[in-house]
Structures are given as structure tokens and as C-alpha cells.
Amino acid sequence: MNILVVEDEQAIRKGIERAIVQLNDGFRVLSTADDGETALQWLETAKVLPDLIITDIYMQFMDGIELIEQVNRRYPGIPCAILSGHEDFRLAQKAIDLKVYRYITKPVQPAELHGILCAIREDIMKARLRFASQQHAGKPSRANTESYVREKLLSDLLEGKLLSMAELKENADCFNFPLDGEYFGGVVRLKKSEPELSQRDLLLYCTGTKHLFSETVLGDVKGFVLIKDERTLVFGIQPADSNSCDSIQNFALLADKVLGIPVATAVGTVVRGIVRIPQSVSQAYDLLEAHSLGEPSYPLEEEQKFRMALGTGRTEEALLSARQFLRMLMAGNAGDAHALQGFYKLAVSVEKLFQELGLQCPALPQLHRHSMAVAAKRMQRWLEACVISRGTVTKTGAASDVVEKVAAYIEQHYHDYSLTLQSLADVVSLHPNYLTQTFRKQTGFSCMQYLAKTRMEKAKQLLNNTDLKISEIAEKVGYENPLYFSSYFKKWVGKNPSDYKEESGSYA
User: Fold this and answer.
1) Between the CA atoms of 218, 220, 223 and 229, what dihedral angle is there, to the nearest 10 degrees?
2) pLDDT tens-digit profile of 259-282?
3) What is the DSSP secondary-structure string of 309-360?
4) Threshold 0.70, pTM exceeds
């Protein structure tokens, strides 16, 4: 069982890591993090997701409760256990509300830790078997006419038996998503395993994968997923925002953890109207085949991320995706011809997007008569010009304006104990990750670090200049629980609030 340990005190973090390694019973520390924000950043780029997260509650910046709330929202298949030196009823109640697997009180002895981990591992295995059994027992219901007609029409469409939108619109009432608009298609394929599964077991896992896809990916977006054969699923999604492709990547990791079998995923480019979804699915098939054969591939997913970020006006995300696209295309030894072909393929896609938006696209510079290094720089400058032309960058001080707005909001609302990274991101209509990157680049702090710093400075002022009780000061600087506040204060200042107040010679 792979474990992520989140604890801001290095000695405790290293001690837990050492104890888990010494158990030598199939438990492995996949990674460690010193606060919730760092843990979320690691999860977003992890190639393998943990089977369990063990997190402290009291940490300097993003605490364990908020981390678990975010994990439940983004990675619902990962169970969490709380590690805390404080036995507090309200925190235990919150842990129950968040469906935390265990509430572990520090210090924990190796034998106790071993028993807890074994119990959690057994629970996870039972849940997987129960899920697979439910999927095997559930048979497709032909009584649901709309569902049957919808899947039959979509299957005919993907197999080339359906030729026009008119044929779909005749049965539009059977669809729970719009037939026009933009879509991208994709493929989910069960990887080969050792020993190879029987056809019956493959179909069982494929059915389970379909249900998991419907519950997670299609829970927030419009679209469909169908079983093509015992190893392959095909899907179509109408992207709601620039995170739609990321949700497909996260699904591959989630499916491995929930069902216990690895899958490969690929997506094609965006097409207009559901009737063109076979083109996008075909591109996804080509991408999977090229990857399995080790051939140089075109970064379709990164193109899609850039295209969606550009289309929705997400500045930072568009610029990051453009650079990542170029890095991926230039990686390896595919050759100049392959890279140049990729440049022009992306250019066609971007020009088409501008046409759909009714905007004038910047003229593409000459690429083919230059060295590849020069061509790549010219391509990057052109992509940046496209972002500017789209109107996502209006002035050079845009990043500073974002930071100033968030900092001002923190200054006005630091006393609100429900203030989170997501609520700060909502203030400036940015994705939390990009807000964190922008804020750190400008200030040297992440948003949550800046919030904690502000709260601690306000607390020191109140301790120095008022005769308020510690519990009253805690409430005034945004901590509902005085114990929470005292723990944070000691981590930040190096001494608890009462000692700080006594040594400062302020109000008694």
C-alpha cells in the first residue's frame, strides 16, 4: 500500500516515514509533504496516486481538514487518516463528517501503526471487491428505452452507420446532453496484465471502469461513455472548462487505485457537433497506438489544454500550456520534420479557433527556412501573440493587479475562519493552482502562507496591545478553535501565545 505522509514537523514526518518502512509488510511511503498545499501540488503531478494519505491537522499553512476536503473533492478514491496530538471532540466530529478512515493520536507506537495500516488496507481491498461484485451483478436495463436508444445511436455513429445530424435530432429527447457545440472524443483502454485476465474478467473490469467514469468524469460535464469491446471504452465530452483534459488524466490514476488494474487514456482534438465525434475518437486511437509502438507522437492533450485556455481567456494557463506543448513536441529524437509538422498542425488548430471566436488571428511567421531552434522561438512568440490578441493579457501589470486584489481581500477578511484557497481564487476568477503560482512569483509566499502570515501578525498586535483572552484573539484572527490557533502560533512564532504575551511585557 502506497502512502503519502503530510506533517509539517520534520522530526515527526521522518519518524513516521521510518516506522512505515521498517514495518516491511508491503507498506511504502510514496512521498511526504510539509503542509496541505504542498501535498495537493504533489498529487496533481504524481504519476502514481497514493492508496492512503496520513495527515496532521495543525500545519502552518493549509491544514489537514482543508486538505481532506480538497482530496475528497478532487480524488474521491483516496482514503485519509488524521494524525494529531490533540484529542478534540469538534475535530473528531469534523473527521467523521469528512469520512476519515482513522483518527490517530500522537505519539503512535510502531505496533499500533502496523495494526491501523493493516485494517485500512483490508477495508480498501473489501471496498474494491464489493465494487467489482456490484458491477458484475448489475445487468444493462433494456427497460430504460431512452438510455438504450441513446447508446445504440452513439454506437452507430462511432461505427459509421449514422451519417447526419438529422438522424440524431430525430431522437434528441433521448440525449441528456446537447448535440451541437464543441466536443472532444477519447479512448480508455485496459492495459495487459500478468497473468492475462480471462475475457469474462476483462468485461467485468471494463463494466466497472465505465461506471467509475460515469460517476467521476461525467459527474461535472456533459457527455457519454460506451463499451466498445472487453478491453476498450470510448467517450465524448463537451468541455466545461480548461480542466476537462486534466480530469481524464486523473481518471487513469483513479481507475488503477479503485479497480486495481491500470488503464491508458488518450483524447483527440475538439470538433464542432456530436456528429463529428468519430474524428476525434479516431485521433485518440492513433495516439494510443503510436504510444504503444514507441513512435514520436503529437501532444494532442497539450494542444487541447492550450486551445481551451485560449478560448476561455485564461492567460497564465494558456501561456504555460503553450510552453509545455513546445517542450513535449521537441523532446526526444523525433527529428526536425516531425517538430515542424507539429508546429503547423497546432497553427491550423489555433487559426480555426480564432475563426470560431470571430477574431483576427496574428499572421504565422515563416518557420521552414530556419533552424529548428529559431523556428521554435518564432512559434513560441507567435503563440504568445495569439494570447495577447485574444485579450487575455491587457497590460503588463495584470499579475500585480491580481496579487494586490487578493492581498487586499485577505487584509479585509483574514478574520473569516472559512477563508480557503478556493474562495481566494474565486475573488479573481482564476484556477487555484495558477493563483498560487502567480502570488508566489510576486510575493515569495503562496496565498495560504500569506494568509497565515497576516493572521499571525494581527495576533501579535492584539497580544501586545490588548487584554483580550487567547480564545478571543483566536476568533478575531480567523480561528474558530483556540487550540488550533495556539498550535499555529507556536509553529509560526516559536512559542505559545501566553508565553509570547508574558515575555513581551504587555497587558496581563
Assistant:
1) -10
2) 777 888 888 777 788 888 888 888
3) HHHTT-HHHHHHHHHHHHHHHHSSS--HHHHHHHHHHHHHHHHHHHHHHT-P
4) no
Q: What is the pLDDT of residue 459?
A: 92
User: Which residues on adjacent β-strands are paired with residue 183?
Assistant: 271
CB 313 within 8 A of CB 242: no
Q: The C-alpha cell of 443 is what? A: 510575493
Distance CA 332, CA 229 (A): 33
Give me the sheet containing 263-272, strands edge to edge: 222-229, 232-238, 182-190, 263-272
Q: Are 451 and 440 spatial neighbours (Cβ–Cβ below 8 Å)?
A: no
Calpha distance 1→212 (Å, rounded):
21
pLDDT digits (tens, 9 = 90+) for 80-116: 888 876 555 455 555 555 667 677 777 778 888 888 8
Distance separating alpha carbons of residues 42 and 31, to the nearest angstrom? 9
3-state helix/strand/coil string of 235-274: EEEECCCCCHHHHHHHHHHHHHHHHCCCEEEEEEEEEECH
Which grid coordinates are listed for 49?
Answer: 496516486
Q: Which amino acid is at 348?
A: V
Distance CA 14, CA 9 (A): 9
Question: What is the mean predicted confidence (pLDDT) over 470-478?
Answer: 91
Query: Please, what is the angle between helix 244-259 and helix 300-311, to 10°?
Result: 130
φ and ψ at residue 347, rounded to 5 degrees:
-60, -40
Calculate helix-pair angle for 110-137, 244-259, nearest 10 degrees. Answer: 100
| pLDDT per residue as tens digits for the range 21-74 | 888 778 889 899 888 888 888 887 777 788 899 998 777 667 787 788 888 777
Q: Which CA distances in Å does 452 have to 88, 271, 315, 414, 419?
A: 22, 45, 27, 9, 11
CA distance 30 to 26: 12
